[in-house]
Amino acid sequence: MRVVIAEDNALLREGMVLLLNSAGHEVVAVASSGPEVLPALLEHRPDVAVLDVRMPPGFRDEGLRAALAARREMPGLPVLVLSQYVEETYAAELLADGASGLGYLLKDRVGRVEEFLDALERVVAGGTALDPEVVKELMTRRRDDPVDSLTPREREVLHLMAEGRDNATIAATLVVSERAVSKHIGNVFAKLGLPPSDSGHRRVLAVLAYLNKGAGQGAS
């Protein structure tokens, strides 16, 4: 896949370049500040953009703004956003885009090579890749609502769904049958008032949209 990387930390940026090249991918451009990002994306039209949330000159949300602008210019552009910490407001704003091919990972995850590459591939395929810590924060934001009615097992299933895991992976992770996972998912959708769907990332985005609504309310 063809990748554009936007990261101001030179060590991390070059590390990702080496990692992706060694995995058989092509880094077509790198950006070290917010204003460089959108022009690079428009010029190279990559398969995916890997963007830091906070970049020069302001170190606020330049990377996120570039990601949102890029997806307006290039609808459906897969974007994997990296952040040093869990920033619920930024995660909520990104997810409010409501489209497929989105990821939000903590930078520590980049060092876990297989997890990072797996997340990147899921995003490029149109799925979602949300860091477990981000999911945890979004779920914690939900207060006095149907999420509270979920059993511990249903919460585990919801958590893994929000990370973008399929039924087989969830079953293997929880050491249960896929039939049991399907039953739990049905219960989750019923309790959250969400229509069931068999279309992979769409069901995840529905759950994330629900969780995100609470995160946005909590952050305002």
From TrEMBL:
Annotated Response regulatory domain residues: 2-122
Gene3D superfamilies found in the cross-reference section: 3.40.50.2300, Winged helix-like DNA-binding domain superfamily/Winged helix DNA-binding domain
InterPro entries per the UniProt record, alphabetical: CheY-like_superfamily, NreC/VraR/RcsB-like_REC, Sig_transdc_resp-reg_C-effctor, Sig_transdc_resp-reg_receiver, Tscrpt_reg_LuxR_C, WalR-like, WH-like_DNA-bd_sf
SUPFAM superfamilies: C-terminal effector domain of the bipartite response regulators, CheY-like
PROSITE patterns linked to this entry: HTH_LUXR_2, RESPONSE_REGULATORY
Name the record gives this protein: Response regulator transcription factor
Residue intervals of the HTH luxR-type domain: 143-214
PANTHER family: TRANSCRIPTIONAL REGULATORY PROTEIN NARL-RELATED, TWO-COMPONENT RESPONSE REGULATOR
Modified residues (4-aspartylphosphate): D52
Keywords, sorted A to Z: DNA-binding, Phosphoprotein, Transcription, Transcription regulation
